[in-house]
Design a protein that fits this description.
The chain is mainly alpha-helical. It has one domain. Helix 1 packs antiparallel against helix 2, helix 1 crosses helix 4 and helix 3 packs antiparallel against helix 4. 13% of the residues are buried.
C-alpha cells in the first residue's frame, strides 16, 4: 500500500495596492515567511505591531535585513498605517515624523 503525502500549498498572495505591491513582492521573495505574514494580517492593526517588532528587534540576537528589505518594510508599514488611522496611537515612528 502506497502512501500519498500531500503538502499544503501556501495561500495565494492577495492583490495589494499598486503603490506598495513591489515592496511586498521584494520582501516575500527574500523572506517568504515575513511576506506570508504580511498577506495574512493585511488590513489589521496586528500587522502594524508585527512590522514594528520585525523591523525594530529589541532582542538583539538577529542578523537583520538587507537595506532594500528594511526600506521596503518601512514603506509597507507607513502605507498600511495610512489605511488604519487607529493604528497611529502609540506609534514609535510618529515621534520622528
Amino acid at each position: 500500500m502506497a502512501l500519498k503525502i500531500v503538502t499544503p500549498k501556501a495561500a495565494p498572495m492577495p492583490d495589494f495596492p499598486p503603490a506598495i505591491a513591489s515592496e511586498i513582492t521584494l520582501v516575500h521573495a527574500q523572506f517568504p515567511r515575513v511576506g506570508e505574514k504580511i498577506a495574512m494580517m493585511w488590513g489589521s492593526v496586528e500587522l502594524q505591531n508585527y512590522l514594528s517588532n520585525t523591523i525594530f528587534d529589541g532582542r538583539g540576537d538577529r542578523q537583520g535585513f538587507p537595506q532594500p528589505v528594511i526600506t521596503a518594510l518601512m514603506r509597507i508599514y507607513k502605507f498600511h498605517e495610512s489605511l488604519l488611522p487607529e493604528a497611529r496611537d502609540g506609534d514609535v515612528w510618529n515621534k520622528f515624523s
